[in-house]
From TrEMBL:
High-level lineage: Eukaryota, Fungi, Dikarya, Ascomycota, Pezizomycotina
Species of origin: Pseudogymnoascus verrucosus
Name of the featured protein: Ribosomal RNA-processing protein 7
GO CC annotations on file: CURI complex; UTP-C complex
Ranges annotated as biased composition (Basic and acidic residues): 242-264, 271-283
Domain Rrp7 RRM-like N-terminal: 10-184
Length: 308
């Protein structure tokens, strides 16, 4: 029998034993590729995280916890972040910040945001989510030493041939197979009162977002930004703002910001340091001016003095 491959490049191979089921009465081995997590944008938990590739499509936090508990023991696993969880939420924020300069792209970002709201508000049609084949995840452990111990335990499992069993000790997770599709059929047609409540909640959230967008557009109308440009917004024909009106509006905005800044005072420590530096610089400047004035007066008196 050929020897199992323990690693490929920088990845260690974690073999997982898939138990037989009624639909497929044969045991199988699934390979998960593991390496220390090293993303392009570092985070505080990178040193105690493992990057997993090719996780099973039915992976849940309970499944990953069970695997690492069998490798390291209880209490060493903290959480897992799946691929869709890393991509969905930050995408909307990034789209809004980077692409908000163009109207069409800003509308697209709002549409994505509203779509996510709709997905959360309306009833679910599936009792659990499945991952695409070859998906990735990040497993966060208790500390950096647990990462080293996990990699050593993976090597030991490859040598001994005793692989962790997928789903061992996992309870409360909806089953797959025919029961999954029976549950889907039932969830697809929820009770009328439950569906009506979900639709009402969604419409209330939609109206709230529309009102918030309208207030923001009204506040930005005919108010020039710091570069002197005026934001063009929808809703009413107010006519173009005159330069005088734009200057007055900008002046009021600056006065409002200045009043707000003064009311806050030295809220941050660096603001106090900057203020003291400015006062010290002003004192030094006055001292130099006084010293030059005194030197000039001395020179003038020496020129006028004539001994008898």
């Amino acid at each position: 029998m050929p020897k199992a491959i323990a690693s490929i490049g920088e990845y260690s191979i974690l073999p997982v034993s898939i138990p037989e089921t009624s639909a497929y009465a044969v045991k199988a081995v699934h390979s998960i590729y593991v390496r220390p997590h090293a993303p392009k944008i570092p985070t505080a938990s990178d040193s105690r995280s493992l990057f997993l590739v090719n996780i099973p499509i039915d992976s849940t936090e309970q499944h990953i916890r069970s695997i690492f508990s069998s490798l390291l023991g209880a209490g060493r696993f903290e959480t897992v972040i799946f691929e869709n969880e890393r991509q969905n939420a930050p995408l909307v924020v990034e789209t809004k910040l980077v692409q908000s300069a163009k109207n069409k792209k800003r509308k697209h970002a709002d549409a994505v945001d509203n779509a996510e709201t709709a997905e959360d508000a309306l009833p679910k049609a599936w009792d659990r989510n499945l991952h695409r084949s070859g998906s990735t995840a990040v497993a966060v452990l208790a500390d950096a030493r647990c990462v080293e111990h996990a990699l050593k335990a993976i090597k030991k499992a490859n040598k001994s041939g005793e692989y962790p069993v997928w789903g061992a000790g996992v309870n409360g997770v909806p089953a797959l197979g025919s029961s999954r599709y029976m549950a889907h059929q039932k969830l697809t047609y929820p009770p009328k009162d439950e569906l009506q409540s979900a639709v009402d909640n969604f419409m209330a959230e939609w109206n709230r977002k529309e009102e918030e967008a309208a207030r923001l557009a009204k506040r930005q109308r005919n108010v020039p930004d710091e570069d002197g440009f005026i934001t063009v917004t929808r809703g009413g024909r107010t006519g173009p703002a005159r330069q005088h009106d734009a200057d007055e509006a900008r002046k009021k905005e600056l006065e409002k910001e200045e009043a707000k800044r003064k009311s806050m005072g030295d809220f941050y420590r660096f603001q106090g340091r900057e203020r003291r530096k400015e006062e010290q610089g002003e004192l030094l400047k006055r001292f130099e001016e006084d010293r030059k004035r005194v030197e000039g007066m001395k020179t003038e008196r020496r020129g006028r003095f004539r001994p008898e």
